[in-house]
Amino acid sequence: MTVAEDSAEDHGGHHLPAVEDWPQGFGEASWWPFITAAGAAGIYLGAALFVLSMAEEPLVSSMVAGATTVGSVGLFLVGLYGWLYHAFVVNFWEGGTDRHSDRTLRFAMLLFLVTEVATFGAGFVYYFFIRGGAVWSADLLPHGGVTGPLVFVNTVILIISSITLHYSHVALRKNDRQRYINLLAATLLLGIVFIGGQVYEYYEFIVHEGYTIAEGAYASAFYGLTGLHGLHVSMGAVLLGIVFVRSLYGQYSSDRHTSVSTVSMYWHFVDVVWVFLVVVLYVGTAVF
């Protein structure tokens, strides 16, 4: 029996891609991350089509833009479910990682975050170009500006969530399980509150002020960057939720906490990105 056949039996009969070439310590081989990425890319394609459909001579209809967005969201959710299921449920749910795998997974997360820096960097470069170009005008901003109290409250919430997550991880390494779970639950709750705040901000801009992504160069940068960040925070909240459920089952200890470490790295990253985003995209419009 080949390695691929043996792996197919271990995973309910479904064949995993390039199993025999899959590097040790990276979990199971899977196409789900690529499906998830395709869905996420499609969401931004749908947003771009929506902008094109709002032109005086639209290149595409709003129906095409809507269908693309809805289909991409569905593909993203399906891919995310499959990815998380195979990463956290099938076999790996019950298993741990050895010391080599722990280092490898941490390094893999670090590489992933480097690609995320490039992703957000592209958005910020676009914003800097329009901010310093002739196209920039104060008329591009929504009525009343963007630096309301909500953004600062949300920033404090997200920073506190990073602090609670840090001390939650510290408690786990000290085998203080109850404190670990309590602080992890607080982090998850703060993350959900932050997402709710972002949804409310969008509601105020779009419904009450009629300020949509098609309102101009700043609007496209604003919704593009905050939407991308919101998508990452939502992903982080899902990961925190999975870690929290696994914690309730007692699957982490001071010697076994790889998932907690990698999810913490991801959460701290999105927090830092948000602070930079607030300084540049929110405060920067009022100061400069």
TrEMBL record:
Lineage: superkingdom: Archaea
Q: What Gene Ontology terms for biological process does this UniProt record contain? A: aerobic electron transport chain
Q: Does the keyword Lipoprotein apply?
A: no
Q: Name one GO cellular component term.
A: plasma membrane
User: MF terms per GO, please?
Assistant: cytochrome-c oxidase activity
Query: What keywords tag this UniProt record?
Result: Cell membrane, Membrane, Transmembrane, Transmembrane helix
Q: Tell me the protein family, please.
A: Belongs to the cytochrome c oxidase subunit 3 family.
Mind telling me which Gene3D superfamilies this protein's record contains? Cytochrome c oxidase, subunit III, four-helix bundle
Species annotation: Halomicrobium zhouii
Signal sequence interval, chain numbering? none
The record's annotation in InterPro entries points to: Cyt_c/ubiquinol_Oxase_su3, Cyt_c_oxidase-like_su3, Cyt_c_oxidase_su3-like_sf, Cyt_c_oxidase_su3_a-hlx
> Where does it mainly reside?
membrane
Q: How does it sit in the membrane?
A: Multi-pass membrane protein
- Locate the Heme-copper oxidase subunit III family profile domain: which residues? 20-286
Q: Which PANTHER family match?
A: CYTOCHROME BO(3) UBIQUINOL OXIDASE SUBUNIT 3, CYTOCHROME C OXIDASE SUBUNIT III
List membrane-spanning regions.
31-53, 73-93, 105-129, 149-168, 180-200, 220-245, 266-287
Q: List where in the cell it is found.
A: Cell membrane
- Protein's recorded name: Cytochrome c oxidase subunit 3
